[in-house]
Amino acid sequence: MPTSLIKRSVVISGHATSVTLEAEFWEALREIAVVDGLSIAALIRQVDKDIPVPRSHNLSSALRVFILKRIQQRS
């Protein structure tokens, strides 16, 4: 079954950027944000802040890895 990509804009450090994720990842991100008591935008900013410098991957990839690690922690 094909998965649709959804692009959303977010402001990080005063700069607008876009993030493209599959619908399932957006839902997982929303669930994590609720548990953490954050908005989705705040959670994305937090993940962006934690990407090592020099940036080894883009924000969308970092979010997917973050979500995977959170799911693994629950198991």
What tags apply to this protein structure?
75 residues; alpha+beta; 21% strand; two-stranded antiparallel sheet
Structural account:
This protein has 75 residues and is α+β, with helices and mostly antiparallel strands. It has a single domain (5-74), classed as protein bp1543 (Ribbon-helix-helix fold). The chain is 53% helix and 21% strand. It is built from three helices and two strands. It has a two-stranded antiparallel ribbon with strand order 1-2. Strand 1 and strand 2 form a beta hairpin. Helix 1 (23-36) packs across helix 3. It is globular, with a radius of gyration of 12 Å. The mean pLDDT is 91.
Give the helix/strand layout:
Blueprint: E1 5-12, E2 15-22, H1 23-36, H2 40-49, H3 59-74
Antiparallel strand pairs: 1-2
Helix pairs in contact: 1-3
Q: What's the overall geometry?
A: globular
Number of domains: 1
The CATH architecture: Orthogonal Bundle
Q: Could you state the CATH homologous superfamily?
A: protein bp1543
H/E order of the elements? EEHHH
| CATH-assigned fold name | Ribbon-helix-helix fold
Please give the count of helices.
3
User: Share of helix among residues?
Assistant: 40-55%
- Largest beta sheet: strand ordering: 1-2
**What does the radius of gyration come to?**
12 Å
Q: What is the number of beta strands?
A: 2
Distance between the termini: 26 Å
The top-level CATH class is Mainly Alpha
- Report strand %: 15-25%
